[in-house]
Design goal:
74% of the residues lie in helices and 1% in strands. The protein is mainly α. β1 and β2 form a beta hairpin.
Length: 450
């Protein structure tokens, strides 16, 4: 199992949104969310719950003064002293109304030290002696997390038999660590049992299968991609298929693309193909980008080629640009070349920027060159400015200089602001200099104002 993922999962009650983000991060990279700011290994959500608990406690209670010292040590990440402090609370005040909270944070501190069996014993005691505690759900979640590392099958099985979907997600994840074959079997059953499995649990099962299921999960994911009625579930299955470089999986995705009616699903298949390093996947993207048909799908295929990188993809994109007539598609190719940070891609953008012709196409090429921050590209754009006849292109060049952090761009803006024959050009150059935080630009503006 992914250790980072395992270590990030906390209590489902405290971190429900984070848990789902981690388990469902499958669809696109944009779905991946951090699990909150960290303070010495404690999530902001965990620390927030601990602080809220203390804010509601009796300020004059001597026992709670010990608890507060434990909180401070947790915040510092001093796990050994924190465990000793919470252990003292439990030993000295066994009947205190907040001993359940102390047991939880004692277990937490022990877990951080890798003393998993000890941590589990304190959690078991908390649940046995304080079944209605407000920390009970947190304790159950932590026990399940620990069980994945200690191989405590009974704890995992008990939670999988219950109806708490959030803790079931953690239990399933833990099972993938301790018994992958059994986890695949259970995840498969969950996904095939439409009536009994909630949407969130299904999505979590797909993400876990995709990450940890290996070759055994490919056929199930393909079946879900074909027949699922829920669009998000289908998309997740397609995404994880795209993470495989297996020829047969790519063949199946391409077959599905041919028979699929939904434009959104077709786009998802193209995205999945762009995530694969398989040669067939790249060839399919090129074929769709070149062929006639829906312009949105062709644009998605062009974007996909920009994700595959490599000289072959650059060559394919350039060929599509040179042979194409659709302005929208050609602009998409320029966008794709601008994302690739490849010398040949940058050279093509420069060529388009300098070649007289369609103004909007030239402006697009200049824009993406300016976004790249390529030193040689900016120098060429600087040279273009003085000989350029179109005021629109000159305006776009000034914009590109304003977006660049290259000294050549800054110096050109200062030159234009001082000497350009066009008052409008001088105003625009001054505007972009005013947006810069470069000391030279600041001094230039100050000198003008003197």
């Amino acid at each position: 199992m992914n250790t980072k993922m395992a270590n990030s999962i906390r209590s489902p009650r405290v971190l429900t949104g984070t848990l789902l983000a981690l388990l469902l991060s499958a669809l696109t990279a944009a779905f991946v969310l951090a699990d909150g700011a960290r303070t010495s290994g404690v999530s902001a959500q965990e620390l927030g719950k601990l602080n809220r608990f203390l804010q509601g406690a009796n300020q004059k209670d001597d026992a709670m003064q010990i608890f507060r010292r434990g909180r401070d040590l947790v915040e510092e990440g001093n796990w050994s002293r924190a465990a000793t402090t919470f252990n003292s609370f439990v030993a000295d005040f066994p009947k205190h109304k907040d001993v359940d909270a102390a047991l939880y944070w004692l277990a937490f501190s022990l877990k951080k030290q890798g003393r998993l069996a000890e941590a589990d014993r304190h959690l078991e005691r908390l649940l046995r002696e304080h079944p209605r505690s407000s920390w009970a759900d947190d304790a159950r979640a932590m026990r399940v997390e620990l069980a994945g590392q200690t191989g405590n099958k009974q704890v995992i099985d008990n939670e999988l038999d219950k109806n708490d979907a959030e803790i079931k997600m953690i239990a399933l994840q833990s099972l993938f660590q301790s018994n992958p074959d059994r986890a695949i079997e259970l995840a498969t059953n969950m996904l095939k049992s439409d009536a009994k499995t909630g949407k969130q649990l299904k999505e979590a099962a797909i993400a876990l299968l995709g990450q940890h299921g290996g070759a055994k999960s490919a056929s199930l994911l393909m079946e879900l991609a074909r027949v699922q009625t829920d669009a998000k579930v289908r998309s997740m299955a397609i995404f994880w298929l795209g993470q495989r470089d297996d020829d047969s999986v790519v063949d199946n995705l391409m077959t599905l693309y041919g028979s699929e009616q939904s434009l959104d699903v077709k786009k998802q298949i193209l995205f999945a193909l762009s995530q694969s390093s398989n040669v067939k996947a790249r060839a399919k993207l090129t074929e769709i980008a070149r062929a006639g048909g829906d312009i949105e799908l062709r644009k998605q295929a062009v974007f996909g080629l920009s994700q595959t990188h490599g000289e072959t993809s650059v060559n394919d994109l350039i060929a599509i640009f040179d042979s194409g007539t659709d302005k929208e598609l050609r602009n998409q190719v320029l966008f794709a070349l601008g994302q690739m940070h490849n010398e040949r891609a940058a050279a093509k953008l420069l060529e388009v920027a300098r070649t007289p012709g369609e103004l909007e196409t030239r402006k697009q090429a200049i824009f993406w060159l300016g976004q790249q921050g390529n030193g040689r590209g900016i120098e060429t754009l600087v040279q273009m400015y003085d000989g350029e006849q179109s005021n629109e292109i000159k305006d776009q060049l000034l914009f590109a200089f304003g977006q660049s952090h290259e000294k050549a761009a800054l110096q050109k803006l200062m030159q234009v602001a001082k000497r350009d024959s066009s008052v409008e050009a001088r105003k625009k150059a001054l505007f972009w200099l005013g947006q810069s935080k470069d000391p030279e630009a600041v001094k230039f503006i100050e000198d003008i104002l003197k």
